[in-house]
Write a structure and sequence with these properties.
The protein is mainly alpha-helical and 335 residues long. It is built from nine helices and three strands, in the order αααααααββαβα. The protein has a three-stranded mixed sheet with strand order 1-2-3. Helix 3 packs parallel to helix 5, helix 4 runs antiparallel to helix 5 and helix 5 runs antiparallel to helix 6.
């Protein structure tokens, strides 16, 4: 593993988080200025979401620094899981802001509040939306490149803010064209409901990461790597578990090898397989195997030549799939 790479990724993540915070603060001031000029509940809803963006950017910056700390005696698996906390915190803030927006929108609908300078509001919202579009794409790219769940979550939220701005601009345009003031709080209410859905999804995804919920995409990649990298003596892999700690993954699994292999042989072959698999794995991490003997039950699927204990002829390599990879037991037909 290139030890300079994690440090480089950390610097890039800090730059991305700092940029997100600075731009978020500027857009927050701009949107509240627009709200004061227009009195629009829709613009207010956009400004409320910007408060969430700024708070989330502050947390993300702190989290990026903490997640980069190496494993220590008190935290043997590192500090990467704190990134899931950042995403959960952001989702909770989004849901809270959505509730406030909906309350304000309903009150505005009942009171019949008027909108002023709708055209100016459209320009403010669209200008901020374009900036958020560029920032969101940048954060998503930085999150993928630096394998940061916190940056990826921020990028997804900022992109949703862009679409929110588009919807608000459309609502204000309709108010300007039709003169129907109730369209403004109605737009804000729709925005609030959409934000609430986004917040709940972010929390749900983050809780799944904190609880090490099965990630089918990650397991699918592991299946491809195992199928490509295993040698003839790696007969089957099962009971695979992945602990995701930010951009660092801890993987352990059981591997079936020929029972006539000695300890040194089994260790050498599985160790080489571990290194080959992790060299192709898209995340930094570690892979540990528990060695199981074949008990002569896998002869049909074992390609090892000159096996002194073979009872059946080799037919084919056993296919690898997610269900078998994660099965805590060996397949029933081999027990």
């Amino acid at each position: 593993m290139n030890h300079s790479q994690p440090a480089l990724e950390t610097r890039h993540s800090r730059v991305a988080a700092s940029l997100s915070l600075a731009i978020g603060a500027l857009l927050l001031a701009l949107k509240f200025w627009g709200f004061r000029v227009t009195g629009s509940q829709a613009v207010f809803s956009d400004a409320m979401e910007s408060i969430v963006n700024v708070a989330a950017a502050i947390v993300a910056l702190i989290v990026v620094v903490m997640a980069a700390r190496p494993a220590d005696k008190g935290h043997p698996y590192g500090h990467g899981k704190i990134e899931f906390f950042s995403a959960a915190f952001e989702g909770g803030l989004i849901a809270f802001a959505a509730a406030l927006i909906c309350v304000e929108a309903v009150q505005a609908l009942i009171a019949g509040r008027a909108v002023h300078e709708a055209g100016f509001g459209v320009m403010i919202v669209l200008g901020a939306g374009v900036v958020n579009l560029l920032l969101g794409l940048y954060l998503l790219r930085a999150g993928r490149k630096n394998r940061s769940a916190a940056l990826a979550a921020s990028g997804q939220h900022v992109l949703s803010d862009f679409w929110t701005s588009v919807g608000i601009a459309l609502g204000l345009t309709l108010v300007s064209w039709t003169g129907r003031q109730w369209l403004d709080p109605l737009t804000a209410l729709i925005v609030g409901l959409a934000l609430g859905k986004t917040g709940v999804k972010l929390v749900r995804r983050s809780v799944g990461g904190l609880l090490d919920e099965e990630d089918r995409e990650v397991l699918g990649r592991l299946v491809e790597i195992i199928a490509a990298k295993r040698g003839d003596g790696i007969i089957q892999v099962h009971h695979c578990r992945v602990i995701r700690a930010g951009g660092y993954h801890h993987i352990d699994a059981h591997v079936v090898v020929p029972e006539f292999w000695g300890v040194a042989k089994a260790h050498g072959e599985t160790d080489a397989f571990e290194r080959a698999a992790m060299s192709a794995y898209p995340y930094d991490g570690e892979l540990h195997f528990h060695v199981d003997p074949c008990r002569r039950a896998y002869c049909r699927f074992c390609a090892v030549e000159d096996c002194p204990i073979r009872e059946r002829a080799f037919e084919r390599r056993r296919a690898v799939n997610i269900d078998e990879l994660t099965n805590p037991d060996e397949p029933a037909q081999f027990l």
